[in-house]
Design goal:
Radius of gyration: 20 Å
Strand content: under 5%
Shape: elongated
Order of helices and strands: HHHEHHEEHHHHHHH
Largest sheet: 3 strands, antiparallel
Number of strands: 3
Structural class: mainly alpha
Strand order of the largest sheet: 1-3-2
């Protein structure tokens, strides 16, 4: 699937690392207990991350930072191959390094970044071959499931998923890769959930996320075409047309790489 959160001005020329605002005592104690390699300490001379300063509410800070980082990945503010430190990213978001580090560690589990000892986190670079392999694995898992669901799920259940498919169409029309990526995952997650297998849904979503980083740049037209396939797939599933389902899903995943 063609996948891939707002653009930003270029990186400022100054190489000075902004001074980190004081962290709470609990944050400092927790930071001291984590090895430097896992914390993502800053690179000397690292430039500030491009983009306007983001104000974050104090509640659910880690979750908000995780969402903001996913947006920055999808928009390209955090570039494939780039190394970013928790302190500098914390300065951008107006928080201590701790929630940034925790969010980055979650992204590492999702395959979006990797830890660079004593420097920070590197955004994963994926070539065409790896993206094609991910698409192939997704198809191997999801096509048989969808064919079975086409035989067993009544048409009215597919109608319940139509609002999610329509949301992907709206997100595609808006042209925001991050919004589209989230709505795309929500649609596929709800579709596969009809199989009643939580492990399947979890594994499929992990593969889906990995296939979205770095985002494939197909532009708004590509996103719109991708989203239209969701509606066509629902129609084929509701009709129980296995041949059309197989064809649509195969083409859908082939377009992701």
């Amino acid at each position: 699937m063609k996948h891939g959160v707002q653009g930003s001005p270029g990186t400022p020329a100054a190489a000075r690392v902004p001074e980190q605002r004081p962290a709470a005592a609990a944050d400092r104690e927790r930071d001291a207990a984590v090895p430097c390699a896992a914390r993502g300490e800053h690179t000397h001379g690292e430039r500030p991350v491009p983009g306007s300063r983001v104000e974050v509410r104090r509640s659910s800070v880690r979750g908000q930072i995780l969402d903001a980082l996913r947006t920055a990945l999808a928009t390209g503010d955090l570039k494939p191959g780039g190394v970013y430190s928790a302190p500098v990213l914390g300065e951008r978001f107006g928080v201590s390094a701790t929630p940034v580090r925790e969010a980055m560690q979650q992204l590492a589990l999702e395959g979006a970044v990797e830890v660079v000892p004593n420097r920070g986190f590197r955004v994963i670079e994926r070539g065409a071959r790896e993206l094609a392999e991910l698409a192939e694995v997704r198809a191997l898992i999801e096509v048989p499931v969808m064919l079975r669901l086409a035989r067993t799920v009544p048409a009215e259940r597919w109608a319940e998923l139509r609002p999610l498919a329509e949301e992907t169409v709206r997100a595609a029309a808006a042209g925001c890769p991050a919004t589209y990526a989230e709505s795309d995952r929500a649609f596929h997650r709800a579709l596969l959930a009809l199989a009643g297998n939580e492990q399947l849904v979890r594994i499929a979503e992990d593969l889906h996320r990995r296939s979205q980083w770095p985002p494939v740049r197909h532009g708004r037209a590509g996103l719109v075409a991708d989203a239209a396939e969701h509606l066509a797939l629902l129609d084929a599933l509701a009709a129980g047309n296995a041949d059309v389902v197989r064809h649509l899903v195969a083409d859908h995943f082939a377009g992701a790489s």
